[in-house]
Queue: 2 jobs
Job 1
Amino acid sequence: MGGQSYVLVADDDPLMLRSLQIILRSAGLTVVTVPDGVAALEQMRREPPRLALLDVMMARLNGLEVCRAVKSDPALVGVTVFLLTARAMPRERQQGLDAGADDYITKPFVNADLIAKVRAVLAPAKSA
């Protein structure tokens, strides 16, 4: 996969996981999917992704817990984290950002918007 060139998607809803995989792969992205937060952390520690899309509500470890773990792990310093959730209240969004999330995306989302946000993260940094 070549160091940080893939997107990790963690969601305990198999239909959402498959949908995200199809959406991102159709945009030409390399995607690895996992069914929960524990598997997400294990995968990231084996091979850090460039971006992790984490569902907030997951069994074992939720997206907020995974996000905090990623942001406090020096080995994962380059990983961007987007939280995905059906919870759209400002307080819940703030909890996600307080956990260190780089973005907070509410479901349902517009596929093109999600792809644009993901591509912005994966685009090589341009020197000014």
Job 2
Amino acid sequence: MTTVRPLSEFYSDPARHPLNRMARVCVGEGIDYIVEMYQDRELKRSEVIKGHSLCYAEDCAENWVMGVIEE
């Protein structure tokens, strides 16, 4: 069983973006990073980020909460 550990979380700003979104960046054994993307507390997508830095994964999470990435 793979252990996944959360590293950071990002939240949408309701004053700037009406989307109720949250993203969590996790790291797991044998997996570089996982970005879990939620809307209205429901998991909408999960992306495995391999071969990139933590900064890249966090940029992905930020793009989700800002509405750059669509459902």
